[in-house]
């Protein structure tokens, strides 16, 4: 029997005790998680530095601080969420009462990526615990230090019959996916997401897929150029662009193109210095294969900023490319690195057409002071989530669901949506026995006539 099967059987037995469904158990488990993260905070930050060269401030902001806020929010709201919800009763159901109960799926498999290896392993876990599930976490093998800390942390605060961490490479993920989990939550690339969904289909297992895609940003002629440049630079080059919701490419209105590019270069240099390869806090590329893929894009278009690389340290400067078209190699797939292609436009309609001719992006960003125009663009473009006059911040609030559409993913989480994602909404009708409405019975005289009149 495989290790995965053993863990699954142990968790199945524990789940069937119904302990995880008790509100007190869930709240205590979430409090233990927060306390554990606090206890391991320095070790987590050290691991992220070793794996990806993340600075302590960037690592805390993007990996740890979000989790604290998420746990606090869910703890405060969970007593309301777990209660059965009474719904309206249709006229045809006079005398009955309808309720929706939130039921945990059972055993959840969480497969985490390498780009935010701590946050994206534990954020889904928060939702799984809140909903009353057991869970198995498979962290990324590309960030081994963080993976080891996750395992140590989880082993210290939870029994493996409740939450377990399984380390390993692709073969381990395959072994886990061969098992019959009750829910699968995957964050990663589109090609791997397809394989996960294919495996899940063998057991008809429900899935959430948090994928990616080419997320556009549009800088309109009436945008605040300083603010736009600053927020684009931060959103694109945080984590060296290895972020699923980073602006993948920019459309800039021709009337402000030169002014914006000048401001963008200025903001990038303010954030990362004149020599970013020597910036001790600039995040590195995760592995050589990904580095080589990104470096091949540097021959596209014209480099107006950056372009230098250091393969020994797996670093690529924040780079801005112009003279780019949809025919260039860099525009064929998600970049997932610190290279920003710039396209220009005169009419917004041509931008919308260009975006619509490609798979739905995970994120979309529009910079303009024209609210009516922003609303019109939101209506026309299909995307997972996004911002007006900002980048990436939409995923940091527990009050907005975060997820993709089409090839950028399926399902959503954060805040209440994390709880709902890992819960089955079980519908129950409680019927009265004080009286009986005879119309539904086949022997009722003139029953068909009355049914047609009522249900017309």
Description of the structure:
The structure is a single chain. With 456 residues, the protein is of the alpha/beta class. Helix content is 41%, strand content 18%. It contains 15 helices and 20 strands. The chain has helices spanning 3-15, 23-39, 41-52, 56-81, 119-130, 144-157, 170-178, 190-203, 225-237, 257-272, 288-296, 348-356, 371-380, 416-421, 447-455; strands at 85-87, 97-104, 107-111, 134-138, 163-165, 183-187, 207-210, 216-219, 249-253, 302-305, 309-310, 315-316, 319-322, 339-345, 363-367, 385-388, 402-403, 409-410, 412-413, 423-430. It has a 7-stranded mixed β-sheet with strand order 10-13-14-9-8-15-16. Strands 5-4-3-6-7-18 form a 6-stranded mixed β-sheet, with helices on both faces. A 3-stranded antiparallel β-sheet has the order 1-2-20. Helix 8 links the parallel strand 6 and strand 7. Helix 9 (225-237) packs across helix 10. The radius of gyration is 25 Å and the shape is globular. It starts with a helix and ends with a helix. The model has no long low-confidence stretch (mean pLDDT 95). It holds the Pfam family Aldedh.
Tally the beta strands: 20
Q: Tell me the strand order in the biggest sheet.
A: 10-13-14-9-8-15-16
Give the uncertain stretches in residue-range form: none
Report the principal-axis shape.
globular
Structural class: alpha/beta
Number of helices: 15
Beta-strand percentage range: 15-25%
Distance between the termini: 58 Å
Helix content: 40-55%
Spatial extent as radius of gyration: 25 Å
Whole-number mean pLDDT: 95
| Sheet having the most strands | 7 strands, mixed
Domain Aldehyde dehydrogenase: 20-428
Pfam family, one: Aldedh
Family: Belongs to the aldehyde dehydrogenase family.
Protein name: Aldehyde dehydrogenase
